[in-house]
Amino acid sequence: MPDASGGAAFPSPCAQANGLELAYQTFGSRDAPPVLLIAGLGAQMTWWDDAFCERLAACGLLVIRFDNRDAGRSTWLAGAPVPRRLALVAAAIRGRRLQVAYTIDDMARDCIGLLDTLGIACAHVVGASLGSAIGQSMVIHHGGRVLSFTSIMGMSGNPRVLRPRPDALALLFSRSAATEAAYIAAYRHASRVLRAGLFPEEEARDTSRARIAWLRGYNPAGRSRQFAAFLAGGSRAMALRDVHVPTLVVHGAVDPLVPLAAGAETAALIPNARLRVIARMGHALPTALWPEIIEAIAEHVTAPAFHQEAAFA
């Protein structure tokens, strides 16, 4: 876990889940339908902006965000080996079995453990990027706990549809920052690339977002372990064909890291899934697109077809 110097400024409760401590926050009424937000690779729960969560909760929902293991204020697997990302990719290309500290399925069980601790029997699940892979594991292995699934900028794990832009791919292998200033500079650069060079007005907020992430708990070793978990998970394409959880796939038309084709494939694999393409959206959630994205999520999770009784244990 990170030291207390940053955490004191950003207090949040922790839940015992799957043998770990997961930091979490909630927005909205406890009596409202629960929506679990799962962040992406190396990202903390604050990636889901406070105002985004508040606006989603205002749709009559209980919004839950949390730090994945090895990120932010949740448990860091400090004793586990730190894999080299380039070596991981080389091994995966050669079809070698990857030695990993944990798997995507373990991270999905973290989510189930969090719901257990919060006394929530079933929840709507929204996962972004790596969070989508975790959500996919939830609907594959714990479908009875998921009322609906929303995949944002996700993919099935099929490498044939993953054709990232070179500048976006390079972000996965960038060197870890050693200082706050270096981290902020790297964060600002990565954000510009992932927004596909659009929404320049967001750059004014990138510094404060980066500073919050640095102070809450920047864990580059954890990011590498999460990346290893993603690669080791392989393709979920066949398993997704048997998913019967109502699914919405939200994907950016100009995503430079996970191309639209990957989102379209995910929607095609899951029976009756709907694809919502967001114009000008890359691999990020710029403020200008929040209304469209929040509307899509809210319409999906409040659809009258859902049988939502007994959401809380």
Which features would summarize this protein structure in a list?
313 residues; alpha/beta; Rossmann fold; eight-stranded mixed β-sheet; 12 helices; globular; disordered N terminus
Characterize the structure shown.
This protein is an alpha/beta fold and 313 residues long. The chain has one domain (4-301): 3-Layer(aba) Sandwich (Rossmann fold). Helices cover 39% and strands 15% of the residues. It contains 12 helices and 8 strands. An 8-stranded mixed beta sheet has the order 1-2-4-3-5-6-7-8, with helices on both faces. Helix 3 (85-93) runs parallel beside helix 9. The two termini are 30 Å apart.
Oligomer: single chain
> Rough shape?
globular
Provide the CATH top-level class.
Alpha Beta
**Low-confidence residue ranges:** 1-8
> What's the main sheet like?
8 strands, mixed
CATH topology: Rossmann fold
What is the CATH homology-level superfamily?
A: Alpha/Beta hydrolase fold, catalytic domain
Provide the helix percentage: 25-40%
Straight-line distance between termini = 30 Å
Listing every helix as H and every strand as E from the N terminus to the C terminus, the arrangement reads HEEEHEHHEHEHHHHHEHEH
Order of strands in the sheet with most strands: 1-2-4-3-5-6-7-8
Number of domains: 1
The class by helix and strand makeup works out as alpha/beta
Counted by DSSP, the helix tally is: 12
Determine Rg (CA atoms, Å): 18 Å
The number of strands is 8
Averaging pLDDT over every residue, what do you get? 92
